[in-house]
Write a structure and sequence with these properties.
The chain is built from 21 helices and 18 strands. The chain is α/β, with parallel strands linked by helices and about 550 residues long. Helix 1 (about 10-20) crosses helix 2, helix 3 (about 55-70) runs parallel beside helix 4 (about 80-95) and helix 8 (about 215-230) runs parallel beside helix 11 (about 325-330). It is globular.
Length: about 550
């Protein structure tokens, strides 16, 4: 059956094309077959990547949004398909990533009957998404989808969920889209910039903290040059290490889990903190203990695209609502009439000392492994990860020196890294894309290796296999120490080399630090998706921490 040219399904796809969508990540479902059929007519403009689990598809769409700054698009079927995809929506919300999730839905005529896989998506996704809605009038299809793009991109970026009742997808979809969405962006108030200039000119120990999403490459470059010229120390928020080059002489490190104690001391000593884009949430502030409300009222200048974030936790000395890039370009015009170069030198030296390799007890030293990865990869290589203690080695010891080279969930979502790597590699096939995954982390979405093989997405994943859920084990040993108290944190894993080979991918096993360079080179040169199965010791539970040491405290 050939659809008429003006169905709601076709108008939806027309709107995607109009707004420059070039990828759709999905798990197909009969509830939105009309949309899939409409996508068949634009396959030269939109590549549809069919995934093996909705969580994988949603994570790919989120990573696409994070990497490009454009809404990542995911499509799933109703009920279980939607709830499986909710993890990606949660990550997009926490990470301020533009994303649109389309969910097939039961027929409008069956709502409220408890129909097969019926879900109220406004209710389920209301707290996870910026906007959750259902397409109820087919002639408004272009309006609703256009609003989704505007909502995802404007203010604090985030996810939108649209349910698509299957019966109306075949109905008249109304007028065609007229033009693409151009998101409105707020510039900073000139009074904000003037006041900031006055405060900065009087500051003795200032610190610039950058975070959030929606940054243009120009803005990060201009602001980075400005801060470097003034010798203004710069710290980056949790999992935002690619905003400026980590080798800049004023780079002080990142705020997150397991931060540099000297950076923590620098934050506490700062008499002016200029936070642009960073929410200053739980992880960057060590569970809201790094700062005090009394202190921020005297020292914090906070600019964020979402008005709701100013004063949400921390009272401010000065607050501004503006697009991150426009705020950065305006701030970079400030001439405070002084510099802080000695402090920048000290801050960067502290950072360099912190990323020096550390000793371990086992045969694989993850700090040396990450150091090798950094040294052999080009600057534009993209590193991805999910959640777990394995990521602490990556975040501490890898240096990001190019924009859009880090894909990591501030939401702490296990299983994020591998789908994210697939999304990145599908966009940049000539770029090295490396996923660093824990053993527990990888198997949350490891079936997407089938997707990688099917579409020829030649990602390398290094699976750090220590046989435990590392983060939980570390906290378990901290609060309830002793081998007899271990519960639910040990893992029995497959042979990941055979696992990879079963899907048609390349696999190589590595058990010692000195074996890793050859194994990594073989994986990079395999010409197909590749797995490096890296056997590590659970004793080395985190950088400079051992299980024995935790038990002895």
């Amino acid at each position: 059956m050939t659809q008429p040219a003006n169905t709601a399904a076709r108008r939806l796809v027309d709107t995607l094309v109009m707004n420059g969508v070039d990828r759709v990540f999905c798990v197909p479902g009969e509830s939105y077959l009309a949309v899939l059929d409409a996508l068949a007519d634009v396959r030269d403009r939109i590549q549809v990547i069919a995934c093996r689990h909705e969580a994988g598809a949603a994570n790919m769409a989120e990573a696409y949004g994070k990497l490009t700054g454009k809404p990542g698009v995911c499509m799933v079927t109703r009920g279980p398909g939607a709830t499986h995809a909710s993890i990606g929506v949660h990550t997009a919300h926490q990470d301020s990533t533009p994303m649109i999730l389309f969910v097939g839905q039961i027929a409008l005529t069956d709502r409220g009957r408890g129909a097969f896989q019926e879900v109220d998506y406004r209710e389920v996704f209301g707290g996870l998404a910026k906007w959750a809605t259902e397409l109820e009038s087919p002639e408004r299809t272009v309006e609703v989808v256009g609003r989704a793009f505007s909502t995802a991109l404007q203010g604090r970026m985030g996810p939108v969920v649209i349910a698509l009742p299957e019966d109306i997808l075949h109905e008249d979809g109304g007028p065609a889209p007229a033009r693409p969405v151009v998101p409105a962006k707020a510039a900073p108030d000139p009074a904000f910039i003037a006041t900031l200039q006055d405060k900065l000119s009087k500051a003795e120990r200032p610190l610039l903290v950058l975070g959030g999403s929606g940054w243009s490459d120009e803005a990060t470059s201009v602001l980075g040059d400005w801060a470097e010229r003034l010798g203004l120390p710069v710290a980056l928020s949790f999992r935002r290490k690619d905003l400026i080059a980590n080798d800049r002489p004023n780079y002080a490190g990142d705020l997150g889990l397991g931060p540099n104690p000297k950076l923590i001391a620098r934050v506490k000593a700062a008499d002016l903190i200029i936070a642009v884009g960073a929410r200053l949430g739980e992880n960057p502030t060590l569970g809201y203990t790094l700062l005090t409300r009394e202190g921020t009222a005297q020292t914090l200048v906070h600019s964020h695209p979402g008005a709701e974030e100013i004063g949400r936790v921390w009272p401010v000395l000065l607050g501004g609502v503006a697009d991150n890039s426009l705020a950065a370009l305006a701030i970079a015009t400030i001439e405070p009439g002084r510099d802080w170069r000695d402090q920048a030198v000290e801050a960067h030296a502290d950072y360099q000392a912190f990323i020096a390799p550390v000793s371990v007890t086992g045969a694989v030293n993850m700090s040396e492994v990450i150091r090798h990865i950094t040294e052999v990869l080009p600057a534009d290589a993209i590193l991805t990860n999910g959640a777990g203690n394995f990521a602490a080695w990556l975040h501490r010891f890898h240096r990001h020196n190019a924009r859009r080279t880090q894909l990591a969930p501030t939401s702490g979502a296990m299983g994020y890294g591998y789908p994210a790597a697939l999304a990145a590699k599908s966009l940049r096939p000539d770029t090295d894309v490396i996923c660093i995954a824990g053993d527990g982390d990888y198997l949350m979405t490891g079936q997407e290796i089938a997707t990688a093989v099917q579409y020829g997405i030649n990602v390398v994943v290094v699976i750090v296999d220590n046989g435990v859920y590392g983060t939980i084990r570390m906290h378990q040993e901290t609060h309830y120490p002793g081998a007899e108290r271990v519960m639910a944190t040990d893992l029995k894993n497959p042979d990941f080399v055979k696992y990879a080979e079963a899907f048609g991918a390349f696999g190589v096993r590595c058990e010692r630090t000195e074996e890793f360079p050859a194994a990594f080179a073989a994986a990079r040169n395999a010409g197909r998706p590749a797995v490096v199965h890296l056997i590590t010791s659970a004793e080395d539970i985190a950088p400079t921490r051992t299980i024995t040491g935790l038990r002895s405290k």
